[in-house]
Amino acid sequence: MSLSGVVTLLSLLVVCHGAINLNNIIFGTCVEMCSNSLIIRAVGGIGGCAEGYECRSNGCGHTCQPVLVKQIAVMCPAIGCALFCPSGYATLANGCPSCTCL
């Protein structure tokens, strides 16, 4: 939340409930559930992540989050095929069309 959002929220609370004691407002803490640093793991006792997860920032601290698999776009060459395929061409294992009818 931006500073203007906090000011607006506090303004609304003051209008609705009168004066607010800011000492009683509880804010969340940054959770450090993991680390990518071998030094921090050894000294701080913070571990790494299980297989299939990686330690990433969540904006305030670090947590184990699922590994995101990035797909690389395949640039298929133009096929110079003399076949006319009314149902389209079959595809190769890489997703590119082949000169074979479906």
What does this 3D model show about the protein?
This protein has 102 residues and is α+β, with helices and mostly antiparallel strands. It is built from two helices and five strands, in the order αβαββββ. Strands 1-3-2 form a three-stranded mixed beta sheet, with no helix packed on it. The longest helix is centred in the first third of the chain and has 15 residues, at 3-17.
Brief summary:
With 102 residues, the protein is an alpha+beta fold. The protein is 22% helix and 21% strand. This is Antistasin-like domain-containing protein.
Mean pLDDT: 71
Residue share in β-strands: 15-25%
The count of β-strands is 5
Q: Tell me the Rg in angstroms.
A: 28 Å
Note the total helix count. Answer: 2
Binned, the helix content reads 10-25%
Strand order of the largest sheet: 1-3-2
Category by helix and strand content: alpha+beta
CA-CA gap between termini:
54 Å
**Helix and strand element order:** HEHEEEE
Summarize the biggest pleated sheet.
3 strands, mixed
Query: Which parts are unreliable, with pLDDT below 50 for 5 consecutive residues or more?
Result: 2-18
Query: So what's the overall shape?
Result: rod-shaped
